[in-house]
Amino acid sequence: MTFCNRTCGFGCAAAAVIAAVIVGVVAAFLQITGTITVTPVFLWVAFGIAIGYLGLALLAASTSNGVCPCSVQRAQLGGALGTVLLSGLLLAIGVTATSILSAVLVGILLFFFALLLTATACTVRCLSACED
Description:
By secondary structure, the protein is mostly helical.
């Protein structure tokens, strides 16, 4: 089993948050201008991916013995929870292309989804730095 006593620096988590904010703002702008549309299929896929991440996080938490405790795992969990909540909300209310509220919600959803993916990259980077 791989064990690592060091924690990943805040730099990777900060970069993940900055990248996610940029993706969220760009997505909200593109949604309000009608350049992109968010379909229910995308919302279901994002919902499924986030549920899968939550299941893996639960499994990792139950079997982990302090293996490489990275600070980015909190960002990853927050991204998964935010993606699940917002994709469920957008599936329930529906998304219109020219609505400002829909554009803001899509921007926030894609912020959380991008945070989930970039924090996963940071977690992989942290785990790959651990030695046997």
